């Protein structure tokens, strides 16, 4: 679409921010390629309004319609045009009147999507649908009887009649919308507005807060586009929606209407630009109460019973292990017989995402009988499917499937998956990596020897620390679906139902095509543990000590009180557990936190600390009078607080939330407690410097909305830094004891944060390096230390702010790094690097730096890297070291990180191995007799091999590349020569090294960081 030639000259008088310039460049490129959709994600405060106006005025130059979710935002679009200059008066350019569209017309979504009310056609369709439902439910035998029933209801219960008729009207409109007929269902005033917009030649549609378009608004606008002349669509939002809990057709329509996200402005970019306040993410860990802990422990007994059922079951030796069919299945050939197999680390086995995939795990505590199916992993190559078998008799006498462990061993050995057999392990693994990894770990944890051709999984944590759920669930899922359910023996199929039923209690639902999360009583107890509210005491006490009177804390929960308490946990969770009221009670009952004068505000309640009640009443009355609102307040005294009630025409949540927010901004109260529905999207208070998140939501949209509350700049406090806290309940010794931690992981999947070594990282690792996507490392011994570390960072606001490097460019390009904590063996105690000028023993930093240099220089010599890179090793909290290549491309940094992980990680069938030696000083009787200055010359030095390392795969492809690595290994790390370890003497040396504990160990995390 070409710009309108009659469009006046409108120029931006300001200067675009760096993040806005990036969006402009993306938009120019997209438009030049003929794209008609721009989907932009940018955080609150990043200047989306100015950006949209800039694209309209200087790039697209067509009459535009801007739609916003409310009148306040509608007015902002009109007001921000004062930043532009034109040779045409503003009065001729901008309009907020639907009846008088101009070059920029700013309206609300409601103004153009209002459905028609009770006209004859709509009411007739609603009545017909109502009659059908009455007949379907057995309330009426035929349409005549249904009509009598409805007429009687209209005569005797008009309110209920109107309510139900309105509901059926909405259902008719929704069905019409899903069928693409929303436009025809609009109110006549809306149809006239669309006609006027068409006559005004609107060629650009700007949709602000476009995440609201998954539903009625999106249906109407998608249909309405046909009435405009091939308009360009720009969608702007800070919180793109996901499909969880949405009507699939609506979400698909949203995706088609706006297209994929073209540019996502990360929060750190806007912080670096200086237009959002910097922040740090912190977490506080609690244990369940004793009573809650006993309940959580029952899940282990439950899991043990399930495993006992499947491991001890009887079976016939003649049974088919993976199929009920007897016809042989030819193997599926792999692309290459000796295709190299990448062996994953435990961090990728099953994973929390394999088990915990719910949006709100407590929205419905009763599992659906027919949950939506999740597709299986697509085969990596054509699968040879057996022909349909002739239906056979299923009886108790039919052969039974093998017990779980023999079935697993045979499945791995034969490389049989469902109805296909694969020729190589690589092709089998590619078909279903989740099962292939989990099955091996399941056996390795139980110290069961794997079949000869099956490589072990590298387990980089002690076997006793392997979380059972992510490993067991994929194994049981495939056993049920591929074996028990398909068995001709009725007892096997009955066992399958027992396993399925038992897993539901653990929060896992096995469907026809896979497993997915469902609500779990144990998960609910951890999520709403009474101990979580108690964590407010150490958190806020520490924050008060650091901030003094400037503290402005907000505590956000899911509900005022816990919703839908179920019988399984009602003895543990009261109606207030996990809710705003429970948190508020902790605040007012603690002598120190009571000084914050806390206020609770929800959609139905206002509670005020008793010390604050008189001052609150005075301030509230004054505010209501000045704002012109009519309301009378009454105060009911309770233990520690007063319940505030209001009467009068203006007393409603909109008014009292605005009032209490203003009093919070002034400092009358220094702590608000509320629900995410009220203190989430659209609520702003730029004084917030402490946010405590007690919610259980994990969807990206809701998490972004919640976190966005604390990012606002405070002009009165230019050095503002906000602390965002999560409280996580852990019982890691139990199989379900990491449920709440899994939610914490999912919540942080798309959250960026600054790390203690001044990098930007996405995921839980930026909170602390000990927090991984599997579990917190060394959990039992370090939770107390983790909490101490988190609390100590409260007072480091200036230091954390400096880590953000505000004012410097933000590249936004990912770079791969390896974060590790190398475990030193007893063999290394007292040793020094084997070089004559080295007087200090290896530290984690210096050892990792040296190995990194050897790898990087080898890669340069082999022309795998273009230029000599700088290897950076930075210490992090908890004894971790982060290593990266400075100024490397994403591809080069990934290659380096993988190689470094292989060199410093456990020996896992490496092609070549190389020793690492240390120098040990042995004193003699004469050296001990003489003074140290003289005696040191008579000491004996000897080099001993203390560790054996793998030569990284990328440097072990041939003898020449190994020789290059040997040269740099000898220069930077240790003398020694590499040995081929897959056969002969080298294989024997490898076995001996493993037996003597000379394989490196540590904690390793491969991560993406941003600068």
Question: What this model shows, in words?
Answer:
This protein is 39% helix and 16% strand. The chain has 1011 residues and is an alpha/beta fold. The radius of gyration is 33 Å and the shape is globular. The model is unreliable at 317-330, 332-344, 347-394 and 933-939 (pLDDT under 50).
Brief synopsis:
39% of the residues lie in helices and 16% in strands. With 1011 residues, it is of the alpha/beta class. It is globular, with a radius of gyration of 33 Å.
Q: Compute the CA-based radius of gyration.
A: 33 Å
The span between the termini is: 37 Å
Indicate the mean pLDDT.
82
Number of helices: 34
Q: Order of strands across the widest beta sheet?
A: 10-23-22-16-21-17-18-20-19
- Given helix and strand content, the structural type is alpha/beta
List descriptors.
globular, alpha/beta, 1011 residues, 39% helix
What topology does this entry show?
Elements (H helix, E strand, L loop, with lengths): L9 E3 L5 H15 L4 E5 L6 H13 L3 E5 L2 H9 L4 E3 L7 E2 L8 E5 H5 L6 H17 L6 H14 L1 H21 L9 H12 L4 E5 L7 H9 L7 E6 L10 H11 L4 E2 L2 H7 L5 E8 L3 H22 L19 E2 L71 H11 L1 E2 L2 E3 L2 H7 L1 H13 L22 H17 L5 H16 L2 E3 L4 E3 L3 H7 L2 H5 L1 H12 L5 E5 L22 H10 L9 E3 L4 E4 L3 H15 L4 E7 L2 E7 L5 H14 L4 E5 H4 L10 E4 L6 H8 L14 E8 L9 H10 L3 E3 L5 E3 L16 H14 L4 H7 L11 E9 L20 H18 L8 E6 L5 E6 L3 H15 L7 E11 L2 H5 L2 H4 L4 E11 L8 H14 L6 E2 L3 H12 L5 E10 L1
Parallel strand pairs: 2-8, 2-9, 3-6, 3-7, 5-6, 7-8, 10-23, 11-13, 16-21, 16-22, 17-21, 22-23
Antiparallel strand pairs: 1-4, 12-13, 14-15, 17-18, 18-20, 19-20, 24-25, 25-32, 26-28, 26-32, 27-28, 29-30, 29-31
């Amino acid at each position: 679409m070409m710009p309108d030639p009659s469009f006046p000259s409108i120029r931006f008088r300001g200067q675009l921010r760096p993040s806005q310039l990036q969006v402009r460049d993306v938009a120019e490129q997209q438009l030049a390629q003929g794209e008609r959709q721009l989907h932009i994600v940018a955080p609150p405060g990043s200047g989306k309004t100015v950006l949209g106006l800039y694209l309209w005025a200087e790039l697209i130059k067509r009459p535009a319609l801007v739609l916003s979710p409310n009148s306040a935002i509608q007015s902002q679009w009109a007001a921000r045009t004062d930043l532009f200059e034109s040779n045409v008066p503003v009065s001729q350019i901008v309009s907020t009147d639907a009846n008088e569209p101009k070059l920029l017309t700013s309206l609300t979504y409601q103004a153009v999507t209002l459905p028609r009310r009770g006209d004859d056609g709509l009411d007739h369709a609603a009545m017909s649908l109502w009659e059908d439902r009455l007949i379907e439910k057995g309330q009426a035998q035929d349409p005549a009887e249904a009509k009598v029933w409805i007429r009687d209801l209209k005569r005797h219960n008009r309110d209920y009649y109107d309510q139900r008729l309105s509901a059926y009207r909405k259902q008719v409109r929704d069905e019409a919308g899903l069928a693409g007929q929303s436009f025809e269902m609009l109110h006549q005033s809306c149809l006239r507005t669309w006609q006027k917009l068409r006559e005004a030649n609107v060629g650009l549609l700007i949709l602000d807060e476009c995440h609201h378009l998954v539903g009625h608004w999106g249906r109407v606008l998608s249909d309405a586009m046909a009435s405009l002349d091939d308009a360009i669509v720009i969608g702007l939002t800070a919180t793109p929606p996901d499909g969880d809990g949405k009507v699939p057709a609506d979400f698909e329509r949203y995706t088609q209407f706006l297209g994929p996200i073209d540019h996502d402005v990360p929060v750190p970019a806007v912080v670096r630009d200086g237009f959002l306040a910097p922040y740090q993410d912190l977490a506080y860990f609690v244990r369940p109460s004793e009573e809650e802990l006993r309940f959580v422990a029952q899940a282990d007994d439950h899991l043990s019973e399930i495993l006992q059922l499947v491991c001890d079951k009887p079976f016939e030796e003649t049974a088919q292990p993976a199929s009920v069919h007897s016809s042989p299945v030819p193997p599926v050939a792999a692309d290459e017989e000796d295709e190299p197999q990448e062996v994953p680390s435990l961090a990728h086995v099953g994973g929390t995402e394999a088990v915990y995939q719910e949006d709100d795990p407590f929205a419905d505590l009763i599992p659906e009988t027919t949950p939506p199916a999740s597709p299986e992993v697509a085969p990596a190559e054509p699968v040879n499917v057996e022909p349909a078998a002739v239906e056979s008799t299923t009886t108790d006498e039919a052969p039974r499937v093998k017990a779980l462990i023999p079935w697993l061993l045979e499945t791995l050995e034969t490389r049989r998956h469902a109805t296909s057999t694969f020729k190589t392990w690589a092709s089998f693994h590619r078909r279903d990596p989740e099962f292939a990894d989990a099955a091996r770990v399941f056996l390795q944890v139980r110290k069961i020897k794997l079949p000869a051709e099956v490589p072990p999984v590298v387990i980089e944590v002690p076997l006793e620390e392997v979380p059972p759920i992510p490993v067991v669930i994929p194994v049981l899922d495939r056993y049920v679906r591929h074996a028990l359910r398909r068995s001709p023996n009725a007892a096997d199929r009955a066992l399958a139902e027992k396993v399925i039923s038992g897993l539901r209690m653990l929060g896992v639902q096995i469907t026809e095509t896979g497993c997915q999360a469902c609500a779990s009583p144990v998960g609910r107890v951890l999520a709403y543990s009474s101990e979580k509210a108690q964590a407010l005491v150490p958190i806020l006490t520490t924050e008060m000590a650091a901030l003094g009177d400037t503290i402005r804390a907000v505590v956000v929960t899911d509900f005022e009180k816990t919703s839908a308490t179920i019988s399984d946990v009602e003895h543990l969770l009261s109606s207030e557990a996990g809710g705003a009221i429970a948190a508020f009670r902790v605040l007012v009952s603690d002598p120190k936190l009571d000084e914050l004068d806390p206020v609770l505000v929800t959609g139905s309640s206002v509670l005020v600390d008793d010390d604050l009640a008189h001052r609150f009443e005075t301030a509230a009355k004054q505010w209501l009078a000045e704002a012109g609102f009519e309301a009378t307040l009454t105060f009911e005294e309770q233990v520690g607080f007063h319940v505030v009630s209001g009467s009068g025409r203006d007393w409603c949540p909109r008014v009292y939330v605005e009032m209490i927010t203003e009093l919070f901004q002034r400092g009358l109260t220094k702590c608000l407690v509320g629900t995410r529905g009220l203190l989430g999207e659209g609520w702003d208070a730029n004084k917030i410097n402490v946010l405590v998140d007690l919610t259980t939501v994990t969807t990206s949209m809701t998490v972004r909305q919640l976190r966005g509350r604390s990012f606002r700049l405070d002009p009165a406090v230019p050095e503002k830094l906000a602390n965002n806290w999560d409280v996580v309940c852990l019982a890691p010794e139990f199989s379900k004891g990491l449920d709440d931690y899994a939610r914490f992981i999912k919540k942080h999947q798309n959250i960026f944060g600054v790390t203690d070594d001044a990098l930007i990282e996405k995921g839980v690792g930026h909170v602390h390096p000990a927090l991984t996507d599997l579990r917190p490392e060394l959990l039992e011994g370090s939770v107390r230390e983790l909490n101490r570390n988190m609390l100590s960072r409260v007072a480091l606001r200036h230091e954390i702010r400096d880590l953000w490097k505000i004012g410097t460019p933000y590249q936004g390009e990912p770079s791969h790094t390896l974060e590790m904590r190398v475990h030193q063996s007893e063999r290394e105690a007292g040793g020094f690097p084997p070089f004559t000028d080295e007087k200090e023993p290896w530290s984690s930093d210096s050892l990792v730096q040296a190995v990194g240099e050897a790898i990087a220089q080898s890669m340069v010599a082999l022309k795998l890297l273009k230029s000599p890179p700088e290897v950076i090793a930075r210490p992090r909290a908890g004894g971790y070291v982060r290593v990266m290549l400075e100024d490397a491309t994403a591809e080069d940094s990934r290659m380096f990180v993988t190689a470094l992980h292989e060199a410093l990680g456990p020996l896992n069938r490496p092609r070549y191995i190389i020793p690492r030696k240390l120098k040990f000083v042995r004193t003699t009787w004469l050296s001990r007799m003489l003074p140290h200055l003289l005696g040191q010359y008579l000491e004996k030095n000897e080099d001993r091999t203390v560790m054996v390392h793998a030569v990284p795969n990328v440097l072990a492809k041939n003898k020449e590349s190994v020789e290059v690595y040997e040269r740099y290994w000898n220069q930077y790390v240790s003398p020694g020569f590499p040995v081929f370890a897959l056969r002969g003497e080298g294989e024997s040396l490898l076995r001996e090294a493993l037996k003597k504990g000379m394989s490196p160990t540590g904690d390793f995390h491969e991560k993406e960081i941003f600068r």
